[in-house]
């Protein structure tokens, strides 16, 4: 069942998408959900003067956290025993106080293996607090025995600029981020991004295969049709370029 959707990006919710994935069949999950920032920062994009995002990014905080715990628990079930999840989120200001992602991550089934600081250079020039210029990437595992091989020599502070903004999606992470993770998990074969957006994780999988000749496969879901269409076109373009160069 899982193999039937490998190397595909499906226009669906992660809940529906996970129905097509067998438990304990994924090696690696790399993703970043909408942050529930109380507006349209992460998901409210405009094209031709029309908002088209499908995500609600202004849920009551308790509902959002319950949804994220459910999401994480489902990811836990889909990962094989030694699998890993890299979950990108950030501390947020809600109603005047800081809400940290660990508030709900530690309530999930996962074991927190490591917290990575991602210094992405984005700034909030609200002068009532120090400017936030970092996000977090959480390495989550099912067993404390899970290891990675730090072939890239990275510390737990990563300095990647945000992905280039475009009219499709203005809150993407850069290609270097999932590519760095993949280089440390060379044995991972099936990689999933349940909030695929415009396809960055899938593109990183293709790039990694080109680097070492591997046969990794990606699986992606997104409920925004425009994101999916854009991602598929970008991936087709990338594969075509590699065939021409190859």
Question: Quick gist of this model?
Answer:
The chain is of the alpha/beta class and 246 residues long. The protein has a single domain (2-245), classed as Rossmann fold. It is built from six helices and twelve strands.
Can you describe this structure?
The chain is of the alpha/beta class and 246 residues long. It has a single domain (2-245), classed as 3-Layer(aba) Sandwich (Rossmann fold). Helices cover 28% and strands 24% of the residues. It contains 6 helices and 12 strands. Strand 6 and strand 7 (97-99) form a beta hairpin. The radius of gyration is 17 Å and the shape is globular.
The CATH topology: Rossmann fold
Strand content: 15-25%
Any guess at the CATH architecture?
Answer: 3-Layer(aba) Sandwich
Largest sheet: 8 strands, mixed
**What's the arrangement of strands in the largest beta sheet?**
1-12-11-2-5-9-8-10
Overall domain count: 1
Name the CATH class: Alpha Beta
Number of helices: 6
Distance between the termini: 31 Å
Mean pLDDT over the full residue set? 89
Q: Determine the fraction of residues in helical runs and give it as a percent range.
A: 25-40%
Tell me the series of helices and strands, N- to C-terminal. EHEEEHEEEHEEEHEHEH
Low-confidence stretches: 41-52
CATH superfamily: Vaccinia Virus protein VP39
Number of strand segments? 12
Going by helix content, strand content and strand pairing, the class is alpha/beta
Backbone shape: globular
Q: What gyration radius follows from the Cα positions, in whole Å?
A: 17 Å
